[in-house]
Amino acid sequence: MRLDDVDWAAKPWKAISDDDLGAALAVPSMLTMDEARLYYWLAARAEGLGAVIDLGTHRGGSAARLLAGLATSASAAPLYTYDRFVTPEGEGDMLTQVQTALAPWGARVTCVKGDIARQAWTGGAVEILSVDAAKSPTTADRIAAEFFPALEPFQSVLIQQDFLHAKQPWLPVQMAALADCFQLVARAGNVCAVFIPTAKVTADHLEDARTEGLTDKELLARLEEAAQRFSPALPAQRFADQRAMVLANPGVRDAWRMRR
Fold first, then answer.
1. From the CB of residue 22, how many other CB atoms can be counted at a distance below 10 Å?
2. Is 219 within the bounds of a domain?
3. Residue 63 to residues 23, 163, 204: CA-CA distances in angstroms?
4. Are 40 and 24 within 8 A, CB to CB?
5. Which domain holds residue 146?
6. pLDDT band at 92 (very low <50, low <70, confident <90, very high)
7. pLDDT score of 91
8. Residue 145 falls inside a structural domain
9. Domain total of the chain
């Protein structure tokens, strides 16, 4: 089934039970239950078009929910999960801990350690791309450049986990600029948005969607355009919160440094 034929408004992932999620629920995660069910459901309907990519798994929670769904799918594709795999203080290594947490899904998962902004993707088509690592415009642009061209129109899916997060206003700006290539189809939890590609992403599209280097004035203007584009599907208050965050943090472009 083409993804534009799915009845997204019905939120079919809500039928996923805790029993379905099973061992995945034992892996720590900041995902809401609505988001967890969404991840599982998307992975469970994977058909093997390409790899599953999880950017920013932290302790393995998002990867576990995707892997649980993949285990019931028709796809034999691998899952690659990318992260720095360090503690929030930046002092301890969490890679072994995450690998242990994901052990129930065996060799199907590969953990890639390092700065996501420095990673390259040469593995062909990507069926599911989960992004929870675009914490700066630089990283958001890099993720788009490396992974978005691997998404197949109407067959792949893009999860922007922090799309409506107040501290990541560059994400709506980026996706609004890519409106010729992506369609917003769903919202889950508080800040997560789901897109399907409607056209192949080209170098020209990526150049138009660059967010690095935007001034506060430019970012705010384009954020307003994004709010208009995604209305009424997404709540106006979320975009207002993003605008307020930019105004309260002039020149700041790292989510972790933003304060209000």
1. 14
2. no
3. 12, 18, 31
4. yes
5. 3-212
6. confident
7. 62
8. yes
9. 1
Tell me what pLDDT residue 77 has.
94
In the predicted model, what is the mean pLDDT of the chain? 96
This prediction has a pTM of 0.96
Q: Which residue has the tokens 């605008």?
A: 243
Question: Are residues 182 and 152 in contact, defined by beta-carbon separation less than 8 angstroms?
Answer: no
Output the domain CATH number for residue 145: 3.40.50.150
Whether residue 84 is contained in a domain is answered as yes
Residue 233: band (very low, low, confident or very high) from pLDDT cuts 50, 70, 90: very high
Residue 57 falls within a domain, yes or no?
Answer: yes
106: buried, middle or exposed (CB in 10 Å: 19+, 13-18, 0-12)? exposed
- Interval 163-213: pLDDT, tens: 999 999 999 999 999 999 999 999 999 999 999 999 999 999 999 999 999
pLDDT at 90: 60
For residue 207, give both structure tokens: 């150049």
What is the three-state SS of the chain? CCHHHCCHHHCHHHHCCHHHHHHHHHCCCCCCHHHHHHHHHHHHCCCCCCEEEEECCCCCHHHHHHHHHHCCCCCCCCEEEEECCECCCCCCECHHHHHHHCHHHHHHEEEEECCHHHCCCCCCCEEEEEECCCCCHHHHHHHHHHHHHHECCCCCEEEECCCCCCCCCHHHHHHHHCCCCEEEEEEECCCEEEEEECCCCCHHHHHHCCCCCCCHHHHHHHHHHHHHHCCCCCCHHHHHHHHHHHHHCCCCCCHHHCCC
pLDDT band for 86, please (50, 70, 90 cuts).
confident
